[in-house]
Specification:
- This protein has three helices and eight strands, in the order αββββαββββα.
- α2 packs across α3.
Amino acid sequence: MNQTRTALLIACAALLAACGGSAKTHYYTLQPLAAAARPPAARNIEHIAITAFKLPELVDRPQLVLRQGETQVQIDDNHLWGQSLRNEILDNLASQLAQETGALRVTLPNQSGKDQAQYKIDLEITRFDSIPGTAAVIEAHWTIQGKTAAQNKTGQAALSEPASGPDTHDALVAAHRRALARLAREIAGGL
């Protein structure tokens, strides 16, 4: 009887030790920090709408997806986006576009009122790579539809921001934030 009880206590202790050693979950956001005190570009834009948005299915998940060489990725279950990656990117771009253009309103695809926008943007991110210790890479193309045919434009960008630092995940998220700020500047340049 004592041997059974001892074996049971050892098994319970081992189980508790295993549970106590589980990795901590970390959450990340792409939301820009408070904007630096700089005036937006002087444009007469009140309302911009992002009417369509596409993101590669591979990265459109709660976990950070880390590129491992040419053919492999690692889906990191302990490092998650604070909300869906799609919403993280859209919220970031809305904030950045408002800052870059001085627009009073930036409408997202899931919001009403986009039909009244001065400019409508269809955006597709074709690459959103997180390469540990190296870089965050974003490739995108977009179309801008204005109120007149002369305002219609297309654009594309291939952006890479260095991502090295003591915390690989923090460095990658910071690099993606910088790349999204550059993307917003490029899109705003076409408005």
